[in-house]
């Protein structure tokens, strides 16, 4: 019989952290650690170039083509004359159509589309829900209520509708946040608070409409969305707020990737989940409020564009947020071009985006079964 020697202790293989093996994977089945592909987590220069070129194309087409037939070659001549100081082929009235109507309208469409798309991507990342949109926390209901009250109380004071809608949108988001914080700290609680506040503000809006039924058509025209600009005023109103929000959301986009790992993992990496969510939701709500104040309620942009970006360029929010900014501008400029040229009378912009977005929403809903929480 052989002597019984003590067995050496068995060495266990090192366990990878949750960040290394992926959220929810078991340690035994953990795949070997691999470096993330740059194509998924970082912006490709060619992708950015393609998005910028698409934006330039729709910008130029939006300026050249309109309800008034000025001739695309004459409009190009006007732009060239404005840049070089030469003689314009357009009359003073035609030049005013180009510079006081078409150019600001195209730029405003780009700003609104960029704001709604990047806000939609942010809300989807914060709530980890692919169907979240920029109006989730009561921004739409607050803006609609405030705009309706202004229209009903002073039908002739249409100039007060944009600032009232801006304040109403921020107020709706603020109420949702306060109600959500008083009931808990989770994102689900905040989401339910947004639903409750939105329902209440929509009820107030309906009551206000019934007080003066003669203004219902004006109210619904605003609610359907549109870009009826009278110059550069609307662009200058929206630009500062959307610009600040865009910088915050693009700089902090990588934090959405960290939040997707879970709060515990994010905290272990030195990120404060609560503060990050507050900052991102505040910036996205600011952009949404600015967009709503100058365009009314335009749906589906915040759902369609981020999902198209994910399909084409990858799922990392470092990629999704900045490309959604560019893609949203492209999408809404093109949709506005259709809205103002497809019929003799201008079609509400919200109707055009609904025609394009509703089928895509169904596709996203079907492809997200089991993932929506």
UniProtKB/TrEMBL annotation:
Its main location: membrane. The keyword Nucleus does not apply. One of its GO terms (molecular function) is transmembrane transporter activity. Coiled coil: none annotated. One of its GO terms (cellular component) is plasma membrane. The keyword Transmembrane applies. The chain crosses the membrane at residues 46-68, 106-123, 135-154, 160-180, 187-208, 235-257, 278-303, 315-335, 347-365. Residues 1-34 are annotated as: Disordered. GO terms for biological process: siderophore-iron import into cell. It is a multi-pass membrane protein. It is found in: Cell membrane. Keywords: Cell membrane, Membrane, Transmembrane, Transmembrane helix, Transport. Pfam families: FecCD. Belongs to the binding-protein-dependent transport system permease family. FecCD subfamily. This is Iron ABC transporter permease. It comes from Amycolatopsis acidiphila. The lineage of its organism: Bacteria, Bacillati, Actinomycetota, Actinomycetes, Pseudonocardiales.
